[in-house]
Amino acid sequence: TLPTIAWIGLGIMGSPMSENLLKAGYSVTGFTLEQEKLDRLAKAGGTAAGSIAEAVRDADVVITMVPASPQVEAIAYGPDGILENVKEGALLIDMSSITPQTSIDLAKNAREKGIRVLDAPVSGGEAGAIEAVLSIMVGGEQADFDAALPILQALGKTIVLCGPHGSGQTVKAANQLIVAVNIQACAEAVVFLEKSGVDLKAALDVLNGGLAGSTVLTRKKDNFLNRDFAPGFRIDLHHKDMGIVTDAARNVGAALPVGAVVAQLVASLRAQGDGGLDHSALLRAVERLSGA
Length: 292
Ligand code: NAD
Hints:
Elements: E1 5-8, H1 14-23, E2 28-31, H2 35-43, E3 47-48, H3 52-56, E4 61-64, H4 69-76, H5 82-85, E5 91-94, H6 100-111, E6 116-119, E7 122-123, H7 125-131, E8 134-139, H8 142-153, E9 156-163, H9 167-195, H10 200-208, H11 215-226, H12 235-252, H13 257-271, H14 282-289
Parallel strand pairs: 1-2, 1-4, 2-3, 4-5, 5-6, 8-9
Antiparallel strand pairs: 7-8
Nicotinamide-adenine-dinucleotide binds at residues 8-14, 31-34, 37, 65-68, 71, 74-75, 96-97, 122-123, 125-126, 232-233, 237.
């Protein structure tokens, strides 16, 4: 029989991901802060719980997908949290993008209670979540990875154990660095092309066929063309991730000269009230700098 799953955090990513587990035949009990997301889970065949304790009580596997380290700590620890209420021997898979150190600490604290942990952040965005083709970067122990693999295969396509606890988060931090710099480069090209009077759609199509092509350019092309900045992936979250990669790189003495500049541009968008927009809104930052 399939393991019973509790899912905490039914946002842009968590809702479609948990629905893919339902489609694969798992029973899923969920908890999140928005009632409409709980209703959506119930409509898809899952069970809506009234609290974290209620959601995790009978679970063999608990999956968390919340914004950042403080939320992971809030749902994991304390009398109403996961660690106090889950069965001994359960597996906790945190798929949120958080600091590597938070994942390392969580694994250690959980182990003292007989609970196994994997960090398993993802890349591929909302579309990747819906289509179950996410890249999943995992940190933790081989045996726990092996146990989690069938579940992760219902959510993603490229699933790799990267090393011990925290390694998945380190790889995810690198992912966010590459994505931000890539979006920034595309945004600069878009403003340059438009100011030059070239047909933007034609330009992006041909660029995508050459070495300049990328998943970012494919996925974000329509955002650029239509100035559609509905999230997707919010600037607020990418700001969090640029902080994670900047800190982690400083800790190991790795220089991020370009990443640091892009981190500043992400921060400036947020300071100007654009934190709720999709990260393709880096185009706005370049337009402002260009007087467009
Ligand atoms: P979101 O804001 O849409 O969803 C977060 C969910 O967490 C919300 O439903 C909220 O109710 C829930 N939550 C927060 N605090 C909670 C608590 N104390 N108890 C229960 N539920 C709580 O965010 P998202 O876009 O789904 O992102 C989630 C994580 O995945 C983030 O770490 C993000 O960086 C990462 N991520 C997002 C994308 C993307 O494209 N959106 C892609 C890859 C990774």
